[in-house]
Amino acid sequence: xxxxxxxxxxxxxxxxxxxxxxxxxxxxxxxxxxxxxxxxxxxxxxxxxxxxxxxxxxxxxxxxxxxxxxxxxxxxxxxxxxxxxxxxxxxxxxxxxxxxxxxxxxxxxxxxxxxxxxxxxxxxxxxxxxxxxxxxxxxxxxxxxxxxxxxxxxxxxxxxxxxxxxxxxxxxxxxxxxxxxxxxxxxxxxxxxxxxxxxxxxxxxxxxxxxxxxxxxxxxxxxxxxxxxxxxxxxxxxxxxxxxxxxxxxxxxxxxxxxxxxxxxxxxxxxxxxxxxxxxxxxxxxxxxxxxxxxxxxxxxxxxxxxxxxxxxxxxxxxxxxxxxxxxxxxxxxxxxxxxxxxxxxxxxxxxxxxxxxxxxxxxxxxxxxxxxxxxxxxxxxxxxxxxxxxxxxxxxxxxxxxxxxxxxxxxxxxxxxxxxxxxxxxxxxxxxxxxxxxxxxxxx
Length: 445
Ligand code: B12
Ligand code: SF4
What we know:
The chain is α/β, with parallel strands linked by helices. The protein has two domains: 2-155, Rossmann fold (3-Layer(aba) Sandwich); 186-444, Alpha-Beta Barrel (TIM Barrel), CATH 3.20.20.70. Helix content is 36%, strand content 18%. It is built from 15 helices and 17 strands. It has a seven-stranded mixed sheet, with helices on both faces. Strands 10-13-14-15-16-17 form a six-stranded parallel sheet. The protein has a two-stranded antiparallel ribbon with strand order 2-9. The longest helix has 30 residues, at 409-438. The radius of gyration is 22 Å and the shape is globular. The chain starts with a strand and ends in a 7-residue tail after the last helix. Bound molecules: cobalamin (B12) and iron/sulfur cluster (SF4). The site of iron/sulfur cluster has 11 residues, from helix 6. Iron/sulfur cluster (SF4) binds at residues 199, 201-203, 206, 208-209, 241-242, 271, 296.
């Protein structure tokens, strides 16, 4: 059985407006590959972000039996396109889709060219599907999987609870030839690593806690160390949504990393209240290589933060930023620009960033993400549609207005672009290295 894993591409690859962009390893696909390593005869990965013109070639040469595609909401239409192209070229291959959008809004993938949609953590269902394909018994239903049948789409029921420690570590060799190209800003080459899944918080704009039904799972520290030892890259981005919330575990992990002599530079998310509560843990992490934290500041007024249910105060945010600086951490801070912003709000945001001396500000536009209550409540106000009456998902990169704004869209866009201009300097010192990191790519921000 030959499986082709595909990471889709778009015309731009960015974290938020203002930064230097990012193309990082396709961790989800590496996890899936690891789950069926004993079942599959051959597996290949096509990262279209790095090889945008390779699809036809790879389908023809590799001739896969299964085509497995991942992606976020902004990739929906590109995934549909890839599925259609795959079906034209290889009519008897099976097309399987999974990931965030598939989990939270599977409807968009119920098209004739897609055979299976996986909802939630993909490893167990994917391995079961591959086993069924090998046994030629694909009529059985699989928990967590929508199946395209002659009589319509059928769901295999909910998956059982995630046993995180039973998930095999990602098969990083799947993208061995691409690994040196993966980067986030100037951190290149960078690896991604997952030590927890889910988040115990309930921010309104965020779909992550909904993805895991509010549960928070942690991996055994020993397993994390074993995986980390295998990682060759000097930079590691912890993709955990909130790794430091359990400070005891992070203390043990830091101690184990130090004792193992692992030398890396880490970039990680951290909530500000978590940072303030656990400064000694953060200090330990700085000592073993934590260099940059991704702080979701989101709003800069008490009202905004309360509306987002972020559970922080402005005083805490300012104190947290100071504490992070004192720890010697570089701060990557993300701000949500609300479509209701006036010109004065844009100015206030700039002043906030200057006053708090934020190293690397990054901006996203408040976007109703599938899975959130905002999405349900604002659905009728969406302004970006496809001709098939579905939202124009290509605009769901958090850089486009998809609901009405207070300023005219043109004025809003101008103010939004000005933010980037105001803070471009922060990234300029890294520009040469970053451009060197990206000269083999075509990126537009
Ligand atoms: C790491 C990360 C990044 C990194 C690297 C991404 C990359 N590979 O290049 C960076 C920082 C570059 C990034 C950028 C962006 N990201 Co991001 N990112 C993440 C993060 C934190 C982790 C993703 C990850 O690797 N998780 C670990 C893997 C193992 O989990 P997984 O992807 O969920 O995969 C599992 C299942 O979903 C399923 N599955 C997934 N795919 C498939 C495919 C098949 C066939 C099957 C069967 C199953 C399956 O099985 C997997 C294994 O169990 C997530 C949050 C999160 N918790 O996931 C946000 C997240 C995915 N990002 C998001 C977004 C919006 C973006 C950006 C647009 C901007 C932004 N401001 O966040 C850009 C777009 C970049 C791009 N062009 O792809 C959103 C997506 C929301 C949505 N509904 O679209 C998320 C959910 C965060 C959020 N803001 O809510 N991101
Ligand atoms: S924004 Fe961060 S803290 Fe809030 S629910 Fe999402 S992952 Fe958790």
